[in-house]
Design a protein that fits this description.
Bound molecules: thiamine diphosphate, iron/sulfur cluster, magnesium ion
CATH superfamily of chain A: Thiamin diphosphate (ThDP)-binding fold, Pyr/PP domains
Strand order of the largest sheet of chain B: 6-5-4-1-3-2-16-7
Number of strands of chain A: 14
Shape of chain B: globular
CATH superfamily of the largest domain in chain B: Pyruvate-ferredoxin oxidoreductase, PFOR, domain III
CATH architecture of the largest domain in chain B: 3-Layer(aba) Sandwich
Order of helices and strands of chain A: HEEHEHHEEEHEHEHEHEHEHEEHE
Number of strands of chain B: 24
Structural class of chain A: alpha/beta
Oligomer: heterotetramer
Structural class of chain B: alpha/beta
Distance between the termini of chain B: 27 Å
Largest sheet of chain B: 8 strands, mixed
């Protein structure tokens, strides 16, 4: 098969974002990542919720689902449960994933399914005209708000860590190549990954702008060339966790980017399922035969011996 | 008790005290004896201590309901005596532990104040002190055989015979009590032994101690009260039969129907369906199939989600990937699924939602009966969300409907809501191999896209029958959307495309209404030409059919129109039946008479006579019989029936 | 244009390009001139770039809808020309920027492929190239005045006059375009100046540049095309009036109605109601009230929840604490609220749910019109959940209904669903002080418990009218429960108590149906004795009333039955009206004709003639007029209307 | 007012829990805490979801709400928003708060409302007969499960921290006095508090039994007498956070109990609201006048000047 180019993943749909929206960077990075991984279009599903960012499925030539506000994660999980071979990527907004969808965000961590979460973190609700998202800091007053934000921000990295995600990173929407590399790593990671992508929204977030971010962001590995997010044993965990966790809490004048945490020792869900349901990987729900020439394969009296009574 | 065998026995005691197993053993005992059995459990939403009871009905032909008064009451505790003393037939018996005779009702902590108050004042009127022994005396005076078991002693005897201590056989008290009951009903101890062997299949030491306990109890009854006149074998001897709850049988239907993924969030009374399916997740194929496929066993994945929103959205994801998927829930979960139902309608996703109705509104009573989710189901999901909604009336129907629902979901690419209820969920029925023949429902996966075609795939192509050829994710480039979309699944706000797409969905369901045969939508029972038509849905069917037999014996000829497809509604057929009746009586377990509303909406016909039950308890043969008679003879408009404790 | 003033103007352009402000200025311009105005915005679910337009209708008496064709089209971009070229009346005008003349439709990125295809083939049939200049030529050939504005030059002139650069006045192009339009319609430049002053209230430099731009544009039109014959003042000169959207006016009604807590999760088209209320959260009291209370200002708390489940459950908590509470949402949010609605029914919590309907099912089109949530609302919540559901037909009704809903919720201790829609949400209407007099709806908080009583408080006491005296949390010991409960609110599974409590809730709502006067439930418009009855609900009322006037002029006498209370349903009244009609026509914007279904369910009457609109666009006077005529004259059963781009 | 005794908070309802259920300890600790704080019955509201533990409102003589599964937090928030003077306590199950209700659990942290969350953590779904709750560890097979748990456990302490809770503690149901003290502290804490209460469920959790816990639990302050969970400045945070966070991750042979984290520097929601809505604390929604002799207090033309047009 020929190597693919990022533009092979472009569609003819008009990209409806505002000029200079950070989503453009994310879209490009995603297309580049897919191209470099050379993934066939129909074998990839991008699953989104509702929001500006959630329009991304229409702009990528893969087999995509535009779901409900807050529900991309369970839909993605369903696809993956039914067909573990499909590459499934969730791309959605901060309101979608951490507000209305926070319950699913947490639950996914318990499963460690191989699903990368691309969190379009613009700190606002774009599509509904600029309300505070769960990542908007306390007391910030963007221009669309009638009063300063009275709710504090939550920390997506720590939330993912507390929930059991095994690959946790932060990126910046306009650093397309770095983001592309992270997306590739996340797609390949055999477990649940989060990339918290700082995404300027020039239309509604007039505080956390391109300039605002670019004054603050730095890469973990630049600051500390020995930075090592990889945890491969419980001892490793004890040794590295305090530093990783306190890096995750860093936010303010300096905002670190890069991979914070990778844990390869947690088994992904599909191999767990295989252990309690032998044959699952060979015949996952989407692929197993359910009939032969329309004939059902099992009569209850064949299998449900525990309900039989000989009279 | 030969030709017209009709036995009703009840066993009551504290939740967690083995009521369920006792019922199961009773059911099996009578089955082994060759009878058809129906048993139902009534219990609190509680893990331990609250009052629970099991009612078993035995006949030569399949009973479909229970009735009061019972022919025998087994009281494992004093609360049972107080709660059910007025539900025992004259000439029947009550079995109780002699140690509880001194219990004063006021001292029974789990008994609810409302219940104590009501029973207390009843007893007062009868001049009975609220003490167990006084109630027993009253019953005895009324001709009821009162059988006190010295359970402590019997346990001791059992332990001695087994050469063990009392504690290790303590759990056999239930077996003793039911043995006493079946002894009085004329059943030999061997049959109960067999039943013990079935129920505790494989657990040798438990079987041994229960068998010993049964023998001890049997002998005690024989010696002290005399056993009943031996009962003949029923018509179903020497067969391989099954006994299952509604929860079980729906799991069986789903498995046979090719389900490969069930997502769920636990909720009573649905979770036992998912559990049972989960226990059989790695199942054996029929021999012929195993041979053809070259594998012995295949799997169904049963997955616990974080909530019902997750459960249905996961099921939707699974369906898009190509799996046959279902989810199972009850009222509160259904409420939470509304948004995703609307999504599945819009995105045309085949998914089955099994709804085990219980007593609402809101959390209501998790373990009690209600048929209250009919209109909510038909109109579930905002924004014009037509879909298929079916309702099963009994176990066998629920089995086949589970299979059909999976077919219709895929054939019409739509969510299908399958309504069942607590009555079916926690009742047991005996049946034969032929009763659940999966080959009667060939698997139909609907239209598939020919993947070798070379054009761009239109997921939502508008076709003659409004169904677009499907394709699982992973095989073709496609888009799926909860927004208004064009034939490719790409969002559009073009007004004309929107109009087309809304009509596509609506007409697809209308079309399903035309294509699905009437026999899948309604059943007409009883005297086909009767001028009195009873109309109902769901599990109310069973007790009505039983009551109709009683009416028939009195020369009252009736027919029953059971509506099984709620959407799209079989309007013409229903209108014809109702318009050709002189008297129409609606029976259902909800406050609004929802079926009557739905009928009027679809046919204009106003059902003026209504019987409803709101207590959260099963509808029983005797009360529905009485209510029907009262409507027929006294022309009453509304009868609210309330029997059962 | 004196006696029978009826102007329809449209302005179109890209989302985010000032269409909204242009519409607002147009509306104010005509108001200042003394006319009544109705304006409505049609737009994509998009932040920037997609096509959007604003349609303004001007009359001496209040218009309630818009109509096509328009008397003037202002095209801020080429897409507007292609999209609306066939919606312009002969003898009217089109205003456009001369710089866009070369635009080829195929090159317009935001235009959807479906739309391009359809318009492309239309143009082809007409023999027109899909180039803006060609379309303009075609229009000109058809007698339409084509007014090209050299906007770049005009901006330069404006900048020069203001002694500033072009960039800083760039945003005034909209003002120029609408000035050109009103100039052609015979309005003086002073009026538009006033309008600019109102709209940009307080922002001096913006006002200055817009006023200058208006002057420049006015002069240009005067010099090159000639201005219209001066229009007379309308009947509403020299008054203090208001203009507000439906979102605005519901916020006003809630504030006047004593709302103290509104929780919400943002969703189009509801969020603007919450925002507007939020902007006025710290509000001024009427003088008399300020004096009595000794405070000038009081507050309403508007709180953004994490989702709709949170929003309604928070509102429930607030209501239990004693606050007058409401939440506001749209279809998807309503779906998510189902479980809590059932909770509020069971726990008898007074809470108002304002539902701004939009185009469904599922996410559908967030910014488009639909009346699709009627039956979903009536049957929202599992398990028999009777409640009050009302639907407003226009701004003024929505205002008073918002107040009434708050009263009814507390009086009957029930959730009240208040249905409004996108048509009302994003349209503007002019009105007077007397039109929104809050004193017409005295505040009624229902029955309170006398806290000095010494007995134990029974939160759910069963009383004659089934309403139990209320008490906020913090004042009395009490229990509130989503489970079946006794009069104290303590969980019980007593069958008899359950029956009583279910009947209590159902009868309470039935009782509300008896107590609430018929005038709050239905309206009958038009010729009261007409034999033709149109039946409708919600915002479809406006265009129907306008169309009825047209029919009347042609001698066709009709009456309109607008149903405003959906649950409990005014069955008797509706049945009487329909049964006394020779022809009944149902009009609504959903695929199932849901009102017709609800009518049949409640009265048995089958409405056989139906007009529906499914495109997500507003129903307009001219199309409903045509459709009604076609039903009346040609006896058509179903007309699907589809006008508007 | 006379001092109250814990038994003053007892009701006559039958307590329906199984013998030796950990909930009994929690109930007693709560009643004792209320008594020691001498809180009037009607001024306290215990808000629960659905589950075994969620029956607790019927057993405490305060003004209580038994809500929906997963929704006690928003109902509690609504009460508190409307009447900040009411003492509002959430007591609910781990499935309720961290499974179906996880989204609200997270959102509450952003608000820092003065609501203590008593998390009855038995690691199972009691009332629905023993399924895995989000706190059940991976591969554990309790007797009610048909196969070992294939979902990992989440960490309630870290989840609370990531969400912004300002008082985070862990307790053990049978240590009634220690739990009582924690509940008192939580009730008095001016912000959102979590007490993760390890609660044996003898009926369904046959793995994490009384014995299992008692072999593992220890108090932070016993192990380290200098343990100091109090954070009062950003510097404090930087200094103490790594240790606090890594203590929060400790789980296994040793399970720490006690207060992990207190942050007094975050303002609670009510005073935030007062800043954007002056008068809120004096006239909260439940208490402000809305009419005088049934007459509404405001005509739209009085307040909504921005919609006025002089013709
Ligand atoms: C159930 C439901 N509630 C609310 C909405 C309205 N809604 C659409 S997008 C959105 C928020 C989008 O914010 P975010 O997820 O941050 O995405 P962004 O637009 O910022 O990319 C909301 C609240 C909806 N579509 N569905
Ligand atoms: C919406 C909804 N889904 C499911 C249920 C069923 N249900 C009742 S309690 C419960 C779980 C209880 O577990 P937990 O919260 O841990 O409480 P516990 O019983 O362990 O104290 C569930 C799933 C319900 N009542 N409502
Ligand atoms: S509103 Fe913000 S997030 Fe949305 S498209 Fe515009 S810039 Fe991007
Ligand atoms: S099941 Fe467990 S949590 Fe529930 S009451 Fe029994 S012991 Fe307690
Ligand atoms: Mg966002
Ligand atoms: Mg639990």
């Amino acid at each position: 098969m020929m190597a693919r180019n990022w533009s092979d993943y472009k569609t003819s749909s008009w990209v409806q974002w505002c000029p200079a929206c950070g989503n453009f960077g994310i879209l490009l990075a995603l297309q580049k990542a897919l191209a470099e991984l050379n993934l066939p279009s129909e074998k990839v599903s991008i699953v989104s919720g509702i929001g500006c960012s959630s329009r991304i499925p229409y702009y990528v030539k893969t087999s995509n689902i535009h779901t409900l506000h807050g529900r991309p994660i369970p839909v993605a999980e369903g696809i993956k449960l039914a067909n573990p071979e499909q590459t499934v990527i969730v791309a959605s907004g901060d309101g979608d994933l951490l507000g209305i969808g926070a319950g699913h965000f947490v639950a996914l961590g318990r499963r460690n399914m191989q699903i990368p979460i691309l969190l379009h973190d613009n700190a606002v609700y774009g599509l509904t005209k600029g309300q505070a998202a769960p990542t908007l800091p306390l007391w910030v007053k963007t221009k669309a708000l009638d009063s300063p934000n009275i709710q504090s921000q939550i920390n997506p990295l720590l939330l993912a860590f507390a929930s059991g995600y095994t690959f946790i990173a932060r990126a910046y929407a306009y650093h397309v190549d770095q983001l592309k590399d992270l997306i590739k790593a996340a797609i390949n990671h055999k477990g649940t990954s989060l990339i918290d992508i700082l995404q300027p929204c020039p239309t509604y977030n007039d505080i956390m702008t391109k300039e605002w971010y670019e004054k603050r962001i730095y890469y973990l590995t630049t600051e500390d060339s020995s930075w090592d997010p990889m945890i491969s044993s419980p001892e490793d965990f004890d040794a590295k966790a305090p530093k990783i966790l306190s890096k995750m809490t860093e936010w303010g004048d300096k905002i670190p980017l890069g991979v914070f945490y990778i844990n390869m020792s947690t088994e992904p869900l599909d191999t767990r399922i295989e252990k309690i349901l032998p044959g699952y990987l060979q015949y996952p729900p989407a692929k197993r035969p359910i009939e032969i020439k329309s004939k059902p394969l099992v009569h209850p009296f064949t299998e449900f011996k525990d309900r039989i009574v000989q009279t | 008790m030969t030709d017209e065998v009709d036995i009703s026995v009840m066993i009551g005691g504290p939740q967690g005290g083995g009521i369920e197993s006792s019922g199961q053993m009773l059911v099996r005992t009578f089955m082994i004896k060759g009878y058809d059995v129906f048993g139902i459990r009534e219990y609190h939403s509680n893990i331990m201590g609250a009052h629970s009871y099991y009612n078993v009905r035995v006949k030569k032909t399949r009973p479909r309901s229970v009735r009061l008064p019972v022919d025998g009451l087994i009281a494992l505790d004093a609360e049972t005596i107080f709660t059910h003393y007025n539900e025992i037939a004259p000439n029947s018996f009550i079995i109780y532990d002699v140690d509880i005779l001194n219990t004063n009702m006021e001292k029974i902590a789990p008994m609810e104040p409302e219940v104590k108050e009501r029973i207390g004042s009843e007893l007062k009127k009868l001049g009975i002190e609220p003490i167990a022994s006084e109630v027993i005396k009253y019953l005895s005076n009324n001709g009821i055989k009162t059988v006190g078991l010295p359970l402590k002693n019997l346990l001791k005897t059992t332990a001695e015979k087994l050469k063990t201590n009392v504690v290790s056989v303590a759990k056999t008290v239930n077996t003793m009590s039911i043995t006493a009951a079946v002894a009085l009903l004329g059943i030999d101890v061997e049959t109960i032994e067999k039943s013990i062997n079935y129920y505790f299949y494989g657990k040798k030491s438990i079987i041994d101690s229960n068998v010993m306990a049964a023998k001890v109890a049997y002998d005690f009854v024989k010696d002290n009260f005399g056993i009943g006149k031996p009962i003949d074998d029923g018509p179903n001897k020497n067969r391989t039969r099954m006994v299952a709850t509604g929860n079980d049988i729906v799991a069986m239907g789903k498995l046979a129907g090719g389900l490969t993924l069930e997502t769920y969030y636990p909720i009573t009374p649905s979770q036992d369906e998912a559990f049972y399916l989960g226990e059989h997740r790695h199942f054996k194929l029929d021999e012929w199939a195993a041979k053809e496929l070259g594998v012995d066993k295949l799997g169904v994945l049963v997955f616990q989600a974080e909530d019902e929103l997750g459960a249905l959205n996961m099921a939707i994801g699974g369906a898009l990937a190509g799996a046959r998927t279902a989810t199972t829930t009850s009222g509160p979960g259904l409420s939470l699924m509304n948004e995703a139902i609307s999504f599945a309608v819009m995105a045309e996703v085949p998914v089955v939602i099994t709804v085990w109705m219980r007593a609402g509104p809101s959390t209501g009573e998790a373990t009690r009966q209600g048929q209250q989710d009919l209109l909510h189901s038909v109109f579930a999901g905002h924004g014009d969300a037509p879909k298929i909604v079916i309702a099963s009336g009994d176990h066998i129907e629920a089995y086949y409907d589970a299979m059909k629902a999976l077919n219709w979901a895929e054939k019409y690419q739509t969510p299908v809501i399958h309504l069942v209820d607590k009555y079916i969920a926690s009742s047991m029925m005996s049946f034969d191999r032929e009763d659940v023949d999966p080959q009667l429902i060939p698997i139909d996966r609907g239209k598939y896209y020919n993947e070798n075609q070379n054009e761009d795939y239109k997921r939502y192509e508008i076709t003659d029958d409004y169904v677009s050829p499907r394709m699982p994710l992973g095989k073709k480039l496609m888009w799926v959307s909860s927004l208004t979309h064009n034939e490719y699944g790409i969002v559009t706000e073009d007004p004309i495309t929107r109009e087309k797409m809304l009509l596509k969905i609506a007409k697809k369901i209308e079309n399903a209404g035309r294509e699905i045969p009437i026999n899948d939508k309604v059943s007409l029972y009883g005297d086909q030409d009767a001028k009195i038509t009873i109309v109902t849905w769901g599990s109310a069917k069973g007790p009505i059919l039983d009551a109709m037999e009683l009416l028939k014996k009195e020369g009252i000829s009736t027919r029953l129109l059971q509506i099984r497809m709620m959407s799209p509604f079989p309007s013409e057929y229903v209108a014809n039946i109702l318009n050709s009746s002189e008297l129409v009586i609606d029976v259902e377990a909800n406050v609004l008479s929802q079926l009557a509303m739905l009928i009027r909406m679809n046919t204009g016909y106003e059902v003026k006579k209504k019987i409803i039950k709101l207590t959260g308890r099963s509808i029983m043969e005797h009360e529905i019989y009485r209510a029907l008679k009262s409507v027929i003879q006294n022309n009453q408009d509304l009868v609210v029936i309330s029997d059962g404790a």
